[in-house]
Design brief:
Order of helices and strands: HHHEEEEEEEEEEEEEHEEEEEE
Strand content: 35-45%
Low-confidence stretches: 30-42
Structural class: alpha+beta
Mean pLDDT: 89
Radius of gyration: 38 Å
Number of helices: 4
Helix content: 10-25%
Shape: rod-shaped
C-alpha cells in the first residue's frame, strides 16, 4: 500500500508541475502577444507610423502608394502624370530624406497633430545649376477611423496632404518638371500659366530646354497641405538661337544684294535717284547689322540694328547728259519680330 500511495502522490506532483509549467507558458504567451500588439501599434499602427508610411512612399517616389493612403485626395479628376496632376509622377519628384518626427500632439481623443522635419533636394536634369536643398517641416492632422483585427487602430488624414501650384512660363508655353515635359498652354502662346496639384511634401525642379530657348532651373516646393505655391520659369534665347537668327538675316541681306534694282523688293535699303540710270545697280553689304533678341509682348523682338550697304551705279544727268558713277554707302536699319513655331522652325514678321 505504501508503494501505491507514493506512486499516486508522485503522479499528483507531476500533474501539478505540468499545470504550473503550462500555465506559466500560457501567461508568457499572452504577455508576448500583448507585447507584440503594443510594438505593432507603436511601430506600424500608431498615428506617427501612419504618417511615416505615407512619407516613405513619397520618398520612394511610390506615387500609387502615397495616393492610396486614407485621406489623400486630389481635387482634380486627372490621372497622375496628366493635366492638373502632371507634377504627381515619379519622374517629376525630387528627393525626400532625413524624415524625423518633431512632435505628436493629441488634440482630442483619436485625433493627432504631428510635425515632421525632412530635407528636400532637387537636381536639374541638364546640370545647368547647382543642386537645390532645403530643410523644412510639415504639419499633418490625422484622425482614428476604426479598428482592424480588434486591436489595431486605423487612421486617415484630416487634411489631404496636397498643395496647389501655379506655374507661369514666360516666353514659352511648356516647361520641364524633373524629367517630364509639361504643357502649360497653347503651343503657339508666348506666355502661359496653369495650375497643378502636388504631394506634400515634395520638390519639383522646373526648367525649359529646347534648341532655341532655355531657362535656369527653378525649385517648386510644397510643404503645407492645401496651401498654394507658385513659380515662374523665365525662358530666354540661347546663344544658338541668336546665331540662327543672325545667320537667317545675313542670308536674307545677301539675297537682297543680288537684285539689280534701286529698291530691291522687300529689302531694308534703296537709293533715290533723280536722273536716269544707265547701268544696273550693283549692291553689296559693307557691314551686317549685329542683332540682339529681346522679349516683346507676343514674340521675340529684334530691336533696331544698323547695317550698311554699298551701291555702284552709272547715272546720266538730265541737265547736261554727262554720265557719272555713283558709288556710295547706304545705311539701313532692320527690326522685326521672331517666333518659334511648334515644329521648332523660326518665323519672321514685321514689327507691329
Amino acid at each position: 500500500m505504501t508503494d501505491e500511495a507514493d506512486a499516486g502522490e508522485n503522479s499528483r506532483d507531476a500533474l501539478q508541475r505540468s499545470v504550473v509549467i503550462y500555465t506559466g507558458l500560457l501567461l508568457l504567451t499572452v504577455a508576448a502577444a500583448f507585447s507584440a500588439v503594443g510594438i505593432l501599434n507603436r511601430e506600424l499602427y500608431s498615428a506617427p507610423a501612419f504618417v511615416r508610411i505615407y512619407l516613405d512612399a513619397v520618398a520612394g517616389h511610390d506615387v500609387a502608394a502615397a495616393l492610396a493612403t486614407p485621406g489623400v485626395k486630389l481635387v482634380t479628376d486627372d490621372a497622375p502624370g496628366t493635366g492638373e496632376a502632371s507634377l504627381i509622377t515619379p519622374d517629376a519628384l525630387g528627393g525626400l530624406s532625413d524624415i524625423e518626427l518633431v512632435s505628436d500632439t493629441e488634440i482630442i481623443p483619436g485625433r493627432h497633430r504631428m510635425v515632421f522635419s525632412y530635407t528636400l533636394t532637387g537636381t536639374p536634369v541638364r546640370g545647368d545649376s547647382n543642386p537645390y536643398t532645403v530643410t523644412a517641416q510639415s504639419e499633418f492632422d490625422v484622425e482614428r477611423t476604426g479598428t482592424s483585427w480588434l486591436v489595431f487602430p486605423e487612421w486617415s488624414f484630416v487634411r489631404s496632404p496636397i498643395a496647389t501650384a501655379t506655374v507661369t512660363v514666360s516666353h514659352a508655353s511648356d516647361f520641364t518638371a524633373g524629367a517630364v515635359q509639361v504643357s502649360a498652354g497653347d503651343p503657339t502662346a508666348f506666355h502661359a500659366s496653369s495650375s497643378y496639384e502636388m504631394l506634400v511634401p515634395s520638390l519639383v525642379m522646373l526648367s525649359h530646354h529646347s534648341e532655341q530657348l532655355g531657362s535656369r532651373a527653378v525649385p517648386l516646393a510644397a510643404t503645407k497641405p492645401r496651401t498654394p505655391v507658385s513659380a515662374i520659369v523665365d525662358v530666354q534665347p540661347t546663344t544658338g538661337f541668336l546665331a540662327e537668327v543672325q545667320t537667317a538675316v545675313d542670308d536674307f541681306l545677301a539675297d537682297c544684294v543680288t537684285e539689280r534694282l534701286l529698291y530691291p523688293p522687300g529689302c531694308p535699303f534703296g537709293l533715290d535717284v533723280n536722273d536716269r540710270i544707265v547701268s544696273e545697280p550693283v549692291w553689296s553689304i559693307e557691314s551686317y547689322p549685329q542683332l540682339t533678341l529681346l522679349a516683346g509682348q507676343d514674340s521675340w523682338v529684334v530691336p533696331n540694328a544698323r547695317g550698311t550697304a554699298r551701291v555702284v551705279v552709272d547715272i546720266r544727268s538730265l541737265f547736261d547728259g554727262t554720265v557719272t558713277t555713283r558709288d556710295e554707302l547706304v545705311p539701313f536699319d532692320v527690326s522685326f519680330a521672331v517666333s518659334v513655331e511648334p515644329d521648332g522652325s523660326i518665323a519672321f514678321s514685321p514689327r507691329s
